[in-house]
Amino acid sequence: MDETVAGDRSSRKVGRAVFLGTVLGGVSALFWGKSAWDGVSSALSPVESHIPLVPSGGWRIYTVSGSMPRFDPKTWRLEVGGMVDRKTSLTYEELRSLPKVEQVSTFHCVTGWTVKNVGWGGVRLNEVLKVASPRPEAHALQFVSAEIPYVDSLTLQQAGLHDVMLAYEMDGKPLPREHGAPLRLVIPEMYGYKNVKWLAGINLVGRAEDGYWEQLGYDRDAWVGHSNGYGT
Amino acid sequence: MKRYKKRFSRTERTLHWANAIFFLALLATGLMLYLPSLEIAVGRRPLIQSVHFWSGIAWVSVLVAIVVLGDRRGIMRTARELDRFDRDDLRWLAGRKPAPQGRFNAGQKINTALTAAFTILFLVTGLLLWFGERDTSLRFASTVVVHDGLMYISLLLLLGHLYLAVIHPATRHALRGITVGTVSEEWAAQHHPKWTE
Fold this sequence. Notes:
The complex is a heterodimer. Chain A contains six helices and eleven strands. Chain A is of the alpha+beta class. Chain A has two domains: 1-53, no CATH class; 60-216, Sulfite Oxidase, Chain A, domain 2 (Alpha-Beta Complex), CATH 3.90.420. The radius of gyration of chain A is 24 Å and the shape is elongated. Chain B is mostly helical. Helix content of chain B is 74%, strand content 5%. In chain B, helix 3 (45-69) packs across helix 6. Chains A and B meet through strand 1 and helix 2 of A and helix 2, helix 3, helix 4, strand 2 and helix 5 of B. Strand 1 of chain A pairs antiparallel with strand 2 (84-86) of chain B, so a sheet runs across the interface.
């Protein structure tokens, strides 16, 4: 009692230490935050399926226009055109009658978040292209989203990677609206912005052109870990 | 008759409430960008993004303006008060008693230091997110994780703060201090004896 009431006047500058320490810790986390978080989330992955650590399994929904396109199965069509012999317009039913494939792959967003083990169901691109029969001068594909003005392209070579697909199912259910219902492109080797949502059309073109984000400075070849300033 | 004692100056109270209002506005718009369910309900992402970004700029600018235009010397004095921890503050943090406290208790001092640091970190990571979308050299894989983590931690701090300020019987009288500026002398003598002595 005496000791404290006597009021020792010695004091330490703890406030600024907490302030500066937190600022420095936070800034340094720009260099280790993601790996630390990945470590925590894989350590907790057994519980994560029961108690989600982050909302919606870590997905974030990015859109570039004011509203998300709405899917109406009666009017929806996938238009395949450009350098093809048969311009094709597939209904949702026709698309689903093509040979179905399923795969589990990881989705990487260029802004730094990742969702592991996403189950996709849909069709391989070549099943759709076969119907339209591309002409030999076509070397790339332009993917047109119903979310105007979102477009992006892949070379035919990139589009031919073994796990590229047009997905109409996600984790066993019809693709939800926020993930691009009814159809999105999936190319796990590239960042999310190449995985065009709300797919409405595919045009066969002579060469790959810059898509929506590429016109704003993103890399056209969006290889995960080797583009957009990463891994270089 | 109850006697009252001035605890917070007008500048201090303005600073507090401006910070509170901007924080809530940023939290609301931030959640609209972060939670898929809200994003679907609200839509208009580009608009919300701009509102969120410019609210963040306004947040920091308004805080700076209040200090510059208000009682600057008073704020500097308060900052020194918040910086200094005497032996009783350390005892208070360790949960030992008695540990008589001044105008701010040690928990409030730490909360202020964290809140100030988080403001800087929110600003830095927010600017990196905004400009990183336009220039890849400003892009770090962890920016989004850090910005979100700050949100989660601040939300916890805010909930604790609200509990102590509004619900907890022993401390909720402090709400009067930050709204009208004064607290009862009796309460002050009990909770902040070194300040009233």
